[in-house]
Amino acid sequence: MHSSIQFDVAEVLEYDKTYRYIDPSSADSNTDSLFALKVRSCTDYFNKKPFIARPGNINIKQIPLVGEFVLIYKTFNQVSDSLKRRESWYYISSVDLQSSIHANLLPGISGGKTQEEIDNTKPGNTFDFKIVSPLQPYEGDLLVEGRWGNSMRFSSTIDLKGDQSVYTIPSPWKGVGQQGQPIIVLSNGRKSKANKQFVTEDIQADESSLYLTSTQKIPNLVLGTNSDKNPLTCYYPNESQFAKSQFIGVADRVILKSKTDIAVIDSPKAIVLNTTGEVKIGNDSATESMVHGDVLLTVLQKILNQLSMPIQCGTMTGTFIDKTNISSAQRSLQDLLSNKYFIDKTTY
Length: 348
Fold this sequence. Notes:
By secondary structure, the protein is mostly beta strands. Helix content is 9%, strand content 20%. It has three domains: 128 residues, CATH 2.40.50; 137 residues, no CATH class; 71 residues, no CATH class. A five-stranded mixed barrel has the order 1-2-3-5-4. The chain has a five-stranded antiparallel β-sheet with strand order 6-7-8-9-10, with no helix packed on it. Strands 11-12 form a two-stranded antiparallel sheet. The protein is elongated, with a radius of gyration of 33 Å. The model has no long low-confidence stretch (mean pLDDT 88).
């Protein structure tokens, strides 16, 4: 049995099984090598013959493109036991040849191709090149960045009290209190810049994003309003200055769906539904208008007052024989308005 671990660097080649599932009943099945690559060593290990490398971590994968390079290592495989050892190659990660978030191709280095084949190498069957900028990193960050401007950042409060040139772009959130308070940002669809310039998340401009804060302010967070006055001012003067933990989701459309049980929005202070459009209750085809409670109270009060007045018919005057229901209605009016639930006054 071999006691040493073998490492190598290999170029990724075209392989028709990487993105497919082939049933075990087929002689060509790949269920023992899911997400495998066809590669060629950049050394003389296999005399330039292609071979198969399986993912070193099947739970967290970054599948390289054709023409990219992977660090590989050799160790035992699924048919090994205590008496014999059978080995396979496994790939760990792509080599950052081009310092690119998007693609790091350099086809042909491992040999075995003509210049014409190298010039015509495609990264895959569906992959299209685009400009994608990397995120500005901050000290202590853990960044997970996709090839398309989507990312997850595990970061913290970054308070630049001294040299402002430490980072190309200061963090888009502002710290309150102790340095290093945690924040998680999930972002999708950012504007990129040329020449691999750094960018940061932008809660207003990104196509969709999710923020989990602890004590950070999000200065450019602006909520929509349906008047010159922000409807949240009675609860907090400026939402971008809030400095306690927040769960903020932003997108062109937001859908929360409960499949089998209730959906709950719970707050000890207030719940605000704000829109310049319509609020539908029941379903999206609702057409019945809601009643303005203050207006209804005024109308009913006037009607009851009128009913309490003497009635004149010609020269004769009189009144209702029994005013019990009028008096009861007057008392019930006091319970018509809620001191907890309010709607914005809008009329046709």
